[in-house]
Amino acid sequence: MRKPIIAGNWKMNNTIKQGESLVSDILGKDLSRDVEVVICVPFTFLDRASKLVTGTQIKLGAQNMHWEEKGAYTGEISPVMLNEIKVEYVIIGHSERRQYFNETDETVNKKIKSALTYNLTPIVCVGESLEERENGKYKELIESQVTKAFEGITKEDAVKTVIAYEPIWAIGTGKTASSEQAEEICALIRSILEKLYDADTSQKIRVLYGGSVKPDNIKELMNMENIDGALVGGASLKANDFVQLVNYKLEE
Ligand SMILES: O=C(CO)COP(=O)(O)O
């Protein structure tokens, strides 16, 4: 059984003060024990957040990292630095990083390998643009992104990763992929993993959906066989919404 994950991606939102208040609001509510709860916060808040969530059910993630341990890479943060403040997850290859910060399939691959070396769980993002969806090439694109991301990664390491399917056209637009569209690609990702590794490995890897996930569409998405959770942007910034997502099973 794959344990569901609800991961919040705060993106470039919240000062330390605002972050403290959001974390304390989330921790003030009951969270389903059946779900792995992750918040991926800005670098400036990681250290403080780490202290706030220690001993609670919330796990901490970063939104990016460099693949090297240290060196002359102005402005970058290394996996060792994330280890030091007990970060457990790291988002790799988010479409916003691919689009605005020159992230490529090659750098994504290097970062995944490095994250695994330093015992960080990579949340590897893949997804197509509206143009790619409309010209019908999106399945090839997903296959290429997944294949390149996992190049040279053993199956023992692959099972430690999490993949997030985030269609770019559904991010922050309020336009969710239908649960059938999301399931189609999450199932495709699993079949690509089966080709790259084997059926057993592909069944162990958790595949999340991301893109305008809200309390009113979470249940339908989570009912899908190949969707193991959600990577959530906007709705993770509101304690009530985020907690409702985590408690999707309880709130019948
Ligand atoms: O990019 C996302 C999560 O990484 C999705 O963002 P929204 O939930 O705001 O659409």
From TrEMBL:
It catalyses: D-glyceraldehyde 3-phosphate = dihydroxyacetone phosphate. It is an enzyme of class 5 (isomerase). Pfam families: TIM. The active site is at 94 (electrophile), 166 (proton acceptor). The keyword Isomerase applies. It comes from the Bacteria. Its main location: cytoplasm. GO terms for cellular component: cytosol. Its EC number is 5.3.1.1. Keywords: Cytoplasm, Gluconeogenesis, Glycolysis, Isomerase. Substrate binds at residues 9-11, 172, 212, 233-234. Gene3D superfamilies: Aldolase class I (3.20.20.70). GO terms for molecular function: triose-phosphate isomerase activity. Signal peptide: none annotated. SUPFAM superfamilies: Triosephosphate isomerase (TIM). Homodimer. Involved in the gluconeogenesis. Catalyzes stereospecifically the conversion of dihydroxyacetone phosphate (DHAP) to D-glyceraldehyde-3-phosphate (G3P). This is Triosephosphate isomerase. The lineage of its organism: Bacteria, Bacillati, Bacillota, Tissierellia, Tissierellales. The gene is tpiA.
